[in-house]
Amino acid sequence: MTALIVIVLIAGTGYLISVRIHPLKRCPACKSTGRHFGSVYAYAHRRCRACGGTGRKDRLGAKVFFGGTSNTGYFGPK
Asked: Which residue in 77, 57, 53 sits closest to 66, CA to CA?
């Protein structure tokens, strides 16, 4: 039982460090392109509304544990 607790603590700490170093993930709406293509005119596109055209979104852990970065990758001053 002690070994399981130690493993969970190590995995949790590793996840927190990973979220702090790499807070962004690819945008699921535009598949990291930053563009949303039209359905009628497939060549036409606009900026993705979900990510604002950056192609990146905050990871869930970045929002929950550190307050998020507003999809910029920079944790502002507190």
From this structure: 77
Which tokens is 33 given?
């392109």
Q: Can you tell me the distance from the alpha carbon of 70 to that of 16, in angstroms, rounded to the nearest whole number? A: 18
Quick: pLDDT tens for 18-29.
Answer: 999 999 999 999
DSSP annotation string for 4-69: HHHHHHHHHHHHHHHHHH--EEE-TTTTTSSEEE-SSSTT-EEE-TTTTTSSEEE-HHHHHHH---
pLDDT in tens, 55-68: 999 999 999 999 99
**In the chain, domain spans:** 2-66
Sign of CA dihedral 53, 59, 64, 69: negative
Neighbours of 13 (CB within 10 A): 10
